[in-house]
Amino acid sequence: MRLRKFRVRAYRCIHDSGEITVGDLAAFVGRNESGKTTILQALTLLNKDEVISELDLCDEMFEELKEEIRLAEGDFELNQRETNMVKEKFPNLPEVKKIKIFRTNKKQEVQYEFENIKISEKSDGSLNSWENFSKRMLEFLETIPNHLRIQINTKFFEDPAPKNQLEFDTGLSEFSNQFHVVAIQDTKVIEEWEKIYAKPENQFSNLLSGGSEKLALENFFSTQLHPRFVYFSDYKKIYGNINLNEYIRDEKRERGESIEYIEEFDKAETVRNLFYLAELDINELEAVRDSPSRCIKLLNTASNRLTKKLNPAWKGDPIHVELRYNPGNIMSVVISDVHRDGTVTNTGLLNRRAEGFKWTFSFIVNFAAETQRAELKEAILLLDEPARNLHPTQQRGISDLLKNLAGSNQVLYATHSPFMIFDYSPGNLLVVELDKRKHLSRIFYDYWNADDKTLTPILYGLARGLVDSIVDREIGRNSRPVIIVETMSDSMYLNSFDKFLQDPNISMNPLNVVSAFNKNAVLPLAIFYRNHGYNTFVLLDNTEESKQISSQLVANEFSPIQTIIFEKDGKLLESIEDYLVLEDYLYAVNQTYEIKLRQEGYSNLTPELVISKKKKGVVEDLKSIWEEHKDDDWNEFDNEEITRYICEKITLGETDFLSDKTKDQFRSLYRLIAERIRQYQNAGIRTDLDKFRKPQKSD
Fold first, then answer.
1. Contacts 24+ apart (CB under 8 A), 543-549
2. pLDDT tens digit string along 182-216?
3. Threshold 0.85, pTM exceeds
4. Residue 487: helix, strand or coil by DSSP?
């Protein structure tokens, strides 16, 4: 189940967030005290076991809170498996694909709404529910002889529904044993009971809870399908030596009294997580610690497990983690650097490493263990600053970890870092701002309309190094036209071939070529430039993603003239590489991958081989060939590496491999761009920039 929209009201600094759409991997960006943490914590109110504190209600909304207010509500989308589960239990209902869950200030329990589905609230004796089951059992007992009935304890059927399979099995088994003892002389009564006991519909897994269809459906969602919000915020640090005596005392809640203990041994949770990842049972260790060979074997196995689980999230050279048992019941955590050539260096205690290293190690241990221990699947993970204190390289490691988790979970996280923003789609990137006068948090779905200072990390992520020029309107008004391209390769080709052709009639000098960070950065980057006074054009390839970008540009008041699709002789092209003659491009490919090709028995890749793949464009054809040789360690085809080779040759003047036809085809691209700019200027299109100008804020 995935959260698709949410709204928060009257919770701490949030009066009303408005209806917010979120994706599967969404980042909340905002300055300190803007309300990012509050939003994440407000969503935990949708957990069915969460308790609302009066202190969390917004003081400024005292009057509104006299009435019932939905503090948090979420619209959820069921996956097909969940829809099928509901259909199996409630075959007479239409398919349930969406549900709204909310919690109010007047009721502690979460509540459900099933929009556009008519559900009966009347008592229904035909439901296979615990209530009807227990009623049938009591009615059956009324039919047996009175001298037997008065001896039978019916409390199991009169109590509330069992919470789980074990409670049900235990209670029903005890009742059945009692029944057999009481009715041992009456075989017919026992036969009737055995028939009831054996019916499949009377098994706990088949029983619903609730006397009406609506109540039964709500209870089914509560027990079987209610989403879990898991909040992570406190990332404790682990040190090099672990005193197992103190750890065991803490596990038994036998806390020490010393100041040192209180200040420094607030890490039992992290130690527990470390042992969990290593699959190390402290009792098993206690049993073998007096046998050196068995102890070493146990710890070596645990160390290898731990290393294997930590390295996927560790960027840079891999590390090896070794757990060593020392006299005095001390466990040491020893870290080594493992280099790509296989050498191992820098072996030593964790506490001798830099603070940033220790924090990174501890975070990955805690986060990996908590998510694995909970067996998180279809959960909604809420992370408050998961990359704090981390170097950008390690932040990318954490972002990879989040991407992996997002496959089977939904991940919402707060961050200040541009290195933790990797999806610029609305709904996957949300901005939080605080109105200091009213002390209200506001969430921007169309994040490019937020305050420039709030947007700074996003702007650096979209196009690092260009922020200062983008936000100054005077620079925009007085600058040459800007052309936004999708990749660094596009920018390199445009600039290099402009220099190479040296044709004053089609020179790109009147343009600023700006490479977006990635495809989903093109739209917001173009909007930012346009909003700050630049005449902005966008150059796109002929892919489905690019077609969507083109439609979104028009929806954001761009003229169709400003969107340019690669084309040649009236045919749309998949990439800028398709402007090169195939033989010319393959020359660069064969030179770049010469050693790799020779090792696999190729003298050169031929045009015939590439064309035979019949993909969309030369780049996709080559990627297909590389994919076929994945098991031969060809890795992935890197078209940017080929771009760099071609552009470097142009710089050095070594361009004999480039044919006149390739030059003419690039000339046609420049003519297309120049023609669009002239069309735009001649059409006299003027964007009303004043409507994008933000009002000056008074201090």
1. 543/574, 543/616, 545/519, 545/520, 546/486, 546/519, 549/519, 549/522, 549/523
2. 898 888 889 988 888 888 777 777 777 777 888 88
3. no
4. coil
